[in-house]
Amino acid sequence: MAAKDNAVAVDKLTEAQAKAELKRLAAEIAKHDKLYYQSDAPKISDAEYDHLRKRNNAIEARFPKFVTKDSPSQKVGAAPARGFGKVAHSVPMLSLGNAFSDEDVTDFADRVRRFLKIDGELNIVAEPKIDGLSLSLRYEDGGLVRGATRGDGFVGEDVTANVKTISDIPHRLKGKNIPAVCEVRGEVYILGRDFIGFNKRAEKEGIQLAANPRNFAAGSLRQKDSSVTASRPLKFFAYAWGEMSAMPSKTQFGMIEWMERAGFATNPLTTLCKTTDELLTFYRKIEQKRSSLGYDIDGVVYKVDRLDWQERLGFVSRNPRWAIAHKFAAEQATTVLNDIEIQVGRTGALTPVAKLVPVTVGGVVVQNATLHNEDYIKAIGNDGGPIRDGVDIRIGDTVVVQRAGDVIPQIVSVVLDKRPKSAKPFKFPTVCPACGSHAVREEDPKTGELDSVRRCTNSLACPAQAMERLKHFVSRGAFDIDGLGDKQIEEFFEGGLVMSPADIFTLQKRDARSLKKLSSREGFGATSVRNLFDAIDARRTIPLQRFIYALGIRHVGEGNAKLLARHYGSVESFRKSMIAAGKGESSEAYQDLNSIEGIGEVVANAIVEFFKEPHSVDAVDALLKEIDVLPAEKVKSDSPIAGKTVVFTGSLEKFTREEAKATAERLGAKASGSVSKKTDYVVAGPGAGSKLADAQKLGVKVLTEDEWLALVGEK
Ligand code: IVH
């Protein structure tokens, strides 16, 4: 490989050289992608191609400021040959937290006030929550250039041609002074009567019926042939925005008025409220109107009106602090429990699943529902006290099933009058149904309480656990490999082709026989194999946060994975520190792990346990041989606190702890819960105790609240 031999070592490159080389690499990789994917005529070997990508990534890792949106590292494979193109959202499309009761709404308003430190006026916009699918529309110089679905919130599908057929969506924005870039977001939905009309015709014509209006709208928007979309009466309400080169208003309500002036349909029920009571009155009014609106809604949404406050409130993981969805009560139906199946999860948890006589709940056919755990079946609640008036759940029972939004349906009660005489209490297995090993309920060492979950003890070799771990590994927030879903993992696992994560990445290299085995599978032709390999290759480079999440460590969800990635920065540092943390609770590495804000003892211990297992470390190392893990994105900041670790202590008077932490993170600092040698600043309010003493002992700089405000430029 000539490029490798005379290339300048990455750590010796000047900025100018790096920039020029990235440009050249992007062009070269794009050329080879095209040859490979579209012309089916590769000109270089896979190893040479991999080398180009690796070099690109290494240079980008050293010069993150040169990473462009169309860098090969940011692209999800090459342009897909089939289906829709992918669109990376410049501002992510996030989701909303839920409120289910009046109290949840009061808590929301209180939280907002506390965070902002206000007790005066707090205007909140209330509007219906449309049950459709969200869409982002990009306008440049007033003209519609792209329509994209939400996808996973970060990358969606390009549905521009289809979007242009929706009459509620203007092709050109109206009015003067339209910002050069406007991304208007909202919900695509369909009127109930149009949905019913379509299903009536479909029935006559013998074509497939749609399950509910939302599925119908989604299916219609994702048609390959846009004339089909055009024939479907889709509608659109605008209620949010993404990237804006200028803001036409300073308030949420003002923005909605602007969207209307620009030519969009906005929801006519949208109301500006001044008190929590007004929010709740709005909720009740909409709940009453729900059935006569003509379109499906599943709750109402509340949004803080002032946009500067929205900005200050920011986000917690994927939900804004400045908005919440107040959901309508769940829908229920009655059916018969045919059987109870025990599923084994990736952490060995035995979960009972109700197999039901299919029943429609709120427009969706339900045949499985969760039974949570052993105690739930026995009518014992989390606190050890009775639930459902002490009525247990038995096979053969008539039960009430409840479904709320996207939450897994659950069984809420039993109709005792209908219990068959022969029904017996359910015996929960004490051995794993997949591997026969003991399944136990762990005792909390501190409280002596039994865990509600029974777990298979054979975490290493239990086939069900191994398979579930692989499913998690390829899932959305993790490696997200197209075409490698639960079904394929099951087949590959059972066929002995993929037993560990690394196996996914070596599939292609393995002997012809295993590949033949793969392509001889039903419904898995040569093209599918090739597409799968492309999808796998597209994930050979992965951000640290996804990598950590993919490991499937107990208690490490996407949020914790992000905290860990930000703290450790690189996969090397993460791996080394986790192994060192296994040396004991007094080790510096363990203390450091435990000091990460948001990572508690339970999580820390689960991570340490994972890395104490040589088998896990081997699996991680085998995987690392096949892939590149991108260092965590450092928050860009030229603030003096960027990269520093700060501890807040005492009763803070000038700002709330949450607000201070949010400021620290926004400026690229880490907020930590305990003081160590690595702490840079301790911000002490009145009444600071042991943390302040620790800081003085370790010689850590202590700041007053005012000094902190000055340091972060808020004073
Ligand atoms: S605001 C940052 N307003 O609900 C959050 N969402 O759970 C921006 N939705 O994905 C969303 N009606 O598809 C907002 N009036 C409304 C909505 C609404 C429906 C959907 C939307 C979003 C989901 C959030």
Please name the defining characteristics of this protein.
715 residues, alpha+beta, D-amino Acid Aminotransferase, Chain A, domain 1, OB fold (Dihydrolipoamide Acetyltransferase, E2P), 5-stranded mixed sheet, globular, disordered N terminus
How many domains in all?
A: 6
Please bin the fraction of helical residues.
25-40%
**Biggest sheet layout:** 5 strands, mixed
**Top CATH class of the largest domain:** Alpha Beta
Distance between the termini: 57 Å
Strand content: 15-25%
Main-sheet strand order equals 2-13-10-3-9
Give the second-level CATH assignment, the architecture of the largest domain.
2-Layer Sandwich
Overall mean confidence score, pLDDT: 88
Q: What is the CATH topology of the largest domain?
A: D-amino Acid Aminotransferase, Chain A, domain 1
Bound molecules: 2-(butylsulfanyl)adenosine
Poorly predicted ranges (pLDDT <50, ≥5 residues)?
Answer: 1-5, 76-82
Based on Cα principal axes, name the global outline. Answer: globular
> Based on DSSP secondary structure assignment, what is the total number of beta strands?
26
